[in-house]
C-alpha cells in the first residue's frame, strides 16, 4: 500500500494548497518523493549539508507549477529549490515565477571543460539547470505466468488480442498520445509533426480507443509498480527509475520494454523571491557537479545531465553486480527507438489536448 | 387624588435623576453593543475566510486582466479595431513594442498563456516572436509576418481582441461548452471538446444516487438506533460514529483494498465459485467504485439527522394507529414516515450538497467515468492554472446548489428541516 499512501499524501498536500511551513531550515528542497527523492538525498543533500553545515528540509510534491505560482503570487515563498519537468520550467520562467540562474556559477568538469559545454544539449535554460534524463517506458511482471511471448515493441502494448488484460497508463495526454502514434506505426522522428495536425490527433485517439476499456489510469509515479505487483494490470507505462527500483531494491521481477521510450528532463528551479536564494544557488551548483550527478546514478537509473558524469557511473548502491550504465535511458541498447519530449509542442497544445483528452475519457 | 395626578405627569426618574425612559434606552443600547461585540469576531472571521474569498474567486470568473496589463499598447489598439478588417500597421507597431517590454520584464508567458486559452497553439508564437522583437524594424507589419507567418492569420488577432477585454463572459461560455467569438458571439464548442455540461449532469446524477442509497441504507439503521433499548442502541451508535471519526482518506483507501480486482470481495467471489479467476468484477476505478465509497462515507450524515428526528416521535402514536385498526405497514406509512420527513429532508440535502462538491474520493477511486465536476475544478486550479475557468465552473456549481436549495424550500420548506 505504500505507493497508494504516497499518492494520497500527494493529493492531500496539493489540495490543501498550503505548503507546510518548514521547520527551522536553511534550505527547502522539493522533489517528487519515493525512490527518486531518496537518490537525491543520498547524492546531493547529505554531502551538501556536510560541506556547508546547513540543514535541508526535503518536501514531496506531485509536479506542476501551481504551488510555485501560488507562493510567488502571494509573496510567501517557502520553497527554495524545486525539481520540475522541462515544459513546466519553461512555462514558469516565461511567466516570471523563477529566479534566473547564471550558468557561470556551475562548476566545470574535472578535466576543465566549462559547464556550458559539459551539460548535454538542451539541458541548460535561463531559469533552470537539468540534473537527470528520465524516461517513460512500459513494464510488466515476468513472475506471473502467462501464455504469451515476451512483448518487445510499443505496438505490443496496444495489442489486446495477443496480450489480453488491463493496462496502466498515466492520466495525461502527454506521452500517452505519443505512445499511441508510435504504436500505430508513426516513426519517432515524425511523431510531433503528425500530432500537430487535426488528423494526427484523431489518429492517436482512434488508437487509444482500441484499448480504452482495458486501461487503468494512474496519476502518481509510485502507482504503476504497485498496480503491477498487485496484478491489477498486465502492462503499465511507468517512469523507468521507479520500475528499476521496484525490481532491484524491492525484489519485484519487473521487465521494461524500451522500444518507443519518451525521455524528458528534470530540472532544478528557484522560485522567485526565495528567502534563501544564495544557499539555493549554491545547492544547485553543488548538486549538478560531475561527481554528484554520477553518484545519484548509483541510487536510481536516471541518466545524469552532464557528459563528464557518464564515465563515472558506477554500480547499484546495494548490489555491485548491477552496472547502472546499462539501465540508463540513454544506454545504447535502450536508446534504439527513443523520442525526446517536445516541450514547445506541449507548451502550445497542452490546454487544448488536455481538454480533448478529458472529453475523450468521459465519453 | 390631585397629588397622584401631578406625580404621574412628572417623568419617572431613576436613582441618579435621569428619566427612566432614557435610562432604559441606555441599558438596551449597552446590551446590544455587548451582543454585537460578541458576534463581531465570528462575523469578521466568516467574512475574511469565507465570503470575501468566494466573492474574489467569483470575480475572477468574469474578470481577467492578464493580457491588458502586460500588453497595454496593443490593448488600446485592439479596443478601437472592429475585429473584422485586416489588422493595420499601428496594431503591429503596438504589438512589437509590447512584446519587447514583456520580454524584458519576463511577463511574456502570462499574456501568451492567456491568448493560448482562447486560441490553442499560439503560445510559442508569442514567446518566439518576443525573442526577436528587439531586432524587428519598421514597417512592422511586414517584419512581424516575416518573423512568423502565423501573425497574418486574423483569428490570432481576434483571439487577442477577446482576451484584451478584462470583463469577459468567455470563461462562463467555456464552462458551458461554448466559445465567445468576435463576430458571432456565443457558439457551441466542437463536439470532441465538449465536456463540462456532461460532467455537471453526471455530478448531479451520482449525488442523487448516493443520496438515494444513503436514505435506503440509513433509514432502517436510524430506526433501530431510535427504538432499540439504550444498551444496544449505544453500541450501534458507536458503530455509526467510529467510521465517521475516521479520516476520509483512510476509509477511501480501505475501499480500494476491498474492491480491487485482487481484493477481498473478488477473492471471496472466486473462492465461492461465483466468478472465474480471469473474469473478476470491476468494482473500483469506475462509477461503481465512486458510488460505493461515497455512500459509505456520507452515510452518517443521513443517519444522524434521521435519528434525531425519530428519537422525538413517541412510540404511542404507532400503538394508537395499530389499535385503531391499521396494519403495521399502513401505520408505518401513514403515521410514522410523515413525521420523519424533516429528518429525511435534512439528511438528503446534507448528503446531496456534500456529494456535489466531492473531490478526493472520486479522484482516488473514480477511474475515468467516475470523475465529478469538482475534479475538473481542481485540475484547472492545480494543473492548467486557468483559475478563471475554475472560478466559472465553481460559480455554476454554486448557482446550481442555490437553485436546489430554493426548490427544496418551495417544496418542503426550509423551516421543516431538522439537523439534530
Task: Provide a concise account of the structure shown.
Chain A is α/β, with parallel strands linked by helices and 363 residues long. Chain A contains 15 helices and 13 strands. Helices cover 71% and strands 2% of the residues of chain B.
Name a few traits of the molecule.
heterodimer; A: 363 residues; D-Maltodextrin-Binding Protein, domain 2; 11-stranded mixed beta sheet; two-stranded antiparallel sheet; 13 strands; disordered N terminus; B: 420 residues; mainly alpha; 3 domains; 71% helix; flat
Tell me what you see in this structure.
The complex is a heterodimer of chains A (363) and B (420). Chain A is of the alpha/beta class and 363 residues long. In chain A, 40% of the residues lie in helices and 20% in strands. Chain A has 15 helices and 13 strands. In chain A, the strands form two sheets. In chain A, strands 1, 2, 3, 4, 5, 6, 7, 8, 9, 10 and 13 form an eleven-stranded mixed sheet that branches. In chain A, helix 4 packs across helix 15. The model of chain A is unreliable at 1-23 (pLDDT under 50). Chain B is mainly α and 420 residues long. Chain B has three domains: 2-62, no CATH class; 66-168, no CATH class; 196-416, Orthogonal Bundle (MetI-like fold), CATH 1.10.3720. Chain B is flat, with a radius of gyration of 32 Å. At the A-B interface, helix 1, helix 4, strand 7 and helix 15 of A face helix 6, helix 7, helix 11, helix 13 and helix 18 of B.
Amino acid at each position: 500500500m505504500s505507493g497508494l499512501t504516497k499518492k494520497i499524501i500527494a493529493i492531500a498536500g496539493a489540495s490543501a494548497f498550503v505548503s507546510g511551513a518548514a521547520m527551522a531550515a536553511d534550505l527547502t528542497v522539493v522533489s517528487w518523493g519515493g525512490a527518486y527523492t531518496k537518490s537525491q538525498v543520498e547524492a546531493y543533500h547529505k554531502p551538501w549539508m556536510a560541506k556547508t553545515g546547513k540543514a535541508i528540509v526535503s518536501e514531496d510534491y506531485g509536479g506542476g507549477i501551481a504551488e510555485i505560482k501560488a507562493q510567488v503570487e502571494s509573496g510567501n515563498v517557502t520553497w527554495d529549490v524545486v525539481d520540475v519537468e522541462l515544459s513546466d520550467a519553461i512555462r514558469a520562467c516565461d511567466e516570471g515565477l523563477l529566479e534566473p540562474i547564471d550558468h557561470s556559477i556551475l562548476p566545470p568538469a574535472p578535466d576543465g571543460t566549462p559547464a556550458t559545454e559539459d551539460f548535454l544539449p538542451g539541458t541548460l535554460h535561463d531559469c533552470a539547470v537539468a540534473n537527470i534524463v528520465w524516461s517513460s517506458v512500459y513494464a510488466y511482471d515476468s513472475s506471473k505466468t502467462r501464455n504469451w511471448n515476451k512483448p518487445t515493441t510499443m505496438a505490443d502494448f496496444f495489442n489486446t488480442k495477443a496480450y489480453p488484460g488491463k493496462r496502466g497508463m498515466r492520466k495525461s495526454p502527454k506521452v500517452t498520445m505519443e505512445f499511441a502514434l508510435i504504436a500505430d506505426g508513426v516513426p519517432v522522428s515524425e511523431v510531433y509533426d503528425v500530432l500537430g495536425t487535426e488528423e494526427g490527433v484523431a489518429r492517436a485517439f482512434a488508437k487509444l480507443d482500441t484499448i480504452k476499456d482495458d486501461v487503468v489510469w494512474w496519476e502518481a509515479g509510485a502507482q504503476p509498480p504497485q498496480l503491477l505487483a498487485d496484478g491489477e494490470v498486465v502492462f503499465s507505462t511507468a517512469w523507468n527509475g521507479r520500475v528499476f527500483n521496484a525490481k532491484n531494491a524491492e525484489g519485484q521481477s519487473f521487465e521494461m520494454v524500451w522500444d518507443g521510450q519518451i525521455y524528458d528532463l528534470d530540472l532544478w528551479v528557484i522560485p522567485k523571491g526565495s528567502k534563501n536564494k544564495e544557499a539555493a544557488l549554491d545547492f544547485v551548483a553543488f548538486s549538478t557537479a560531475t561527481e554528484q550527478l554520477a553518484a545519484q546514478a548509483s541510487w536510481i537509473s536516471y541518466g545524469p545531465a552532464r557528459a563528464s558524469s557518464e564515465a563515472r557511473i558506477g554500480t547499484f548502491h546495494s548490489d555491485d553486480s548491477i552496472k547502472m550504465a546499462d539501465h540508463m535511458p540513454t544506454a545504447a541498447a535502450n536508446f534504439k527507438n527513443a523520442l525526446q519530449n517536445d516541450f514547445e509542442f506541449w507548451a502550445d497544445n497542452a490546454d487544448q489536448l488536455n481538454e480533448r483528452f478529458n472529453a475523450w475519457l468521459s465519453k | 387624588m390631585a397629588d397622584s395626578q401631578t406625580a404621574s405627569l412628572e417623568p419617572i426618574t431613576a436613582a441618579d435623576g435621569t428619566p427612566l425612559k432614557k435610562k432604559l434606552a441606555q441599558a438596551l443600547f449597552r446590551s446590544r453593543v455587548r451582543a454585537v461585540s460578541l458576534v463581531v469576531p465570528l462575523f469578521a472571521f466568516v467574512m475574511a475566510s469565507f465570503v470575501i474569498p468566494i466573492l474574489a474567486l467569483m470575480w475572477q470568473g468574469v474578470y481577467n486582466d492578464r493580457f491588458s496589463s502586460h500588453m497595454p499598447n496593443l490593448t488600446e489598439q485592439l479596443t478601437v479595431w472592429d475585429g473584422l478588417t485586416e489588422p493595420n500597421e499601428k496594431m503591429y507597431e503596438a504589438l512589437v513594442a509590447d512584446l519587447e517590454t514583456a520580454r524584458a520584464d519576463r511577463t511574456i508567458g502570462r499574456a501568451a498563456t492567456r491568448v493560448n486559452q482562447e486560441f490553442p497553439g499560439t503560445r510559442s508564437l508569442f514567446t518566439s516572436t518576443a525573442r526577436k522583437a528587439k531586432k524587428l524594424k519598421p514597417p512592422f507589419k511586414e517584419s512581424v509576418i516575416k518573423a512568423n507567418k502565423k501573425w497574418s492569420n486574423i483569428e490570432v488577432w481576434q483571439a487577442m481582441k477577446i482576451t484584451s477585454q478584462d470583463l469577459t463572459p468567455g470563461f462562463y461560455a467555456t464552462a458551458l461548452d461554448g466559445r465567445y467569438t468576435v463576430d458571432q458571439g456565443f457558439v457551441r464548442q466542437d463536439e470532441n471538446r465538449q465536456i463540462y455540461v456532461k460532467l455537471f449532469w453526471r455530478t448531479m446524477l451520482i449525488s442523487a444516487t448516493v443520496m438515494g442509497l444513503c436514505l435506503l441504507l440509513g433509514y432502517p439503521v436510524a430506526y433501530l438506533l431510535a427504538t432499540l433499548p439504550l444498551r444496544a442502541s449505544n453500541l450501534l451508535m458507536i458503530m455509526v460514529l467510529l467510521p465517521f471519526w475516521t479520516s476520509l482518506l483512510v476509509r477511501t483507501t480501505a475501499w480500494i483494498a476491498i474492491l480491487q480486482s485482487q481484493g477481498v470481495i473478488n477473492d471471496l467471489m472466486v473462492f465461492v465459485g461465483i466468478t472465474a479467476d480471469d473474469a473478476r468484477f470491476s468494482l473500483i476505478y469506475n462509477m461503481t467504485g465512486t458510488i460505493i465509497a461515497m455512500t459509505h462515507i456520507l452515510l452518517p450524515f443521513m443517519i444522524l439527522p434521521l435519528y434525531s428526528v425519530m428519537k422525538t416521535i413517541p412510540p404511542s402514536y404507532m400503538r394508537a394507529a395499530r389499535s385503531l385498526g391499521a396494519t403495521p405497514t399502513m401505520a408505518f406509512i401513514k403515521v410514522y414516515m410523515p413525521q420523519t420527513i424533516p429528518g429525511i429532508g435534512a439528511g438528503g440535502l446534507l448528503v446531496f450538497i456534500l456529494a456535489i462538491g466531492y473531490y478526493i474520493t472520486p479522484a482516488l477511486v473514480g477511474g475515468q467515468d467516475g470523475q465529478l465536476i469538482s475534479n475538473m475544478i481542481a485540475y484547472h486550479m492545480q494543473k492548467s492554472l486557468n483559475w478563471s475557468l475554475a472560478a466559472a465552473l465553481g460559480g455554476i456549481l454554486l448557482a446550481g446548489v442555490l437553485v436546489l436549495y430554493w426548490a427544496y424550500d418551495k417544496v418542503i420548506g426550509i423551516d421543516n428541516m431538522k439537523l439534530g
